[in-house]
Prior knowledge:
The chain is an alpha+beta fold. The chain has seven helices and 15 strands.
Amino acid sequence: MPSSESDPGGAPYAREQRVAVAAAEEAGAMLRARFTGAQAVGVKDAAGDVVTDLDLAAEKIVLARLQTHFPHDRILSEEAGLFDAVGRRTWLVDPLDGSNNVAIGLPSYAVGIGLCVDGEPVVGVVHEPVTGSTWRAVAGQGAYGAGGGLPGPAGRVPQAGPVVAWTQGHAVGRDDTVAAGLRRQLERRSRRVLQLWAPLLGWSMLARGTIDGFVGYCAEGIDFPPGALLASESGVAFRTLTGGDFRVGFAGPDADRSFVAARADTLAYLLDVVAAAEVS
């Protein structure tokens, strides 16, 4: 595991985790208080992905804390972009994962903060403002919530089929045949496929063991590492769509970030489902 600049004598990345949790919870409290007054202030792409005033307000809170405590670190944030610096450490900030949900009044969203060292996630924090719940992980130390360690999914395939979260990148078009094939096979052989518009919520559910797996196609890079670290620290394994080794990280194009995440028998089951979609 990469070296830490945490408190002397403390657990690796303890200070980083504390600052990330405090930032996410402060931003979450603001989001919860202002949720009903959210206003869309921009459109990101032709698919209609929106930016709200709450995205920008939450981002301001998180960036202020990170820049105060870690002024020499790089920060890559969903709306503000890259605050560059020389070094191995990069903070990833998704101040409001689920902006499209918020814009239509659906209370399903999260705040995500991650720290990567040399591209490898070492701290992940996911906060759900609606319930006030925070889930956190440090590489090699497990994943935790208010009730203790997160158990991860059982790994057994339910008789009715698994419950699976699905995510795809914003750049994936409606006519993408691979995405359509994957979704079709998952719907056919799963009990339910969750398309949440807020992938961080899917990661927290997987780490808690309330769903069975997660499949992603050309997933976005900023919110992926903190959520995936939660899952991996709860015992979830990752594979490429063709069953090969998959490296959790944010570097590289979204096209390289397609994965199956599950455990034991469910992982094998989902890889078989994905193979039926003739992914190449």
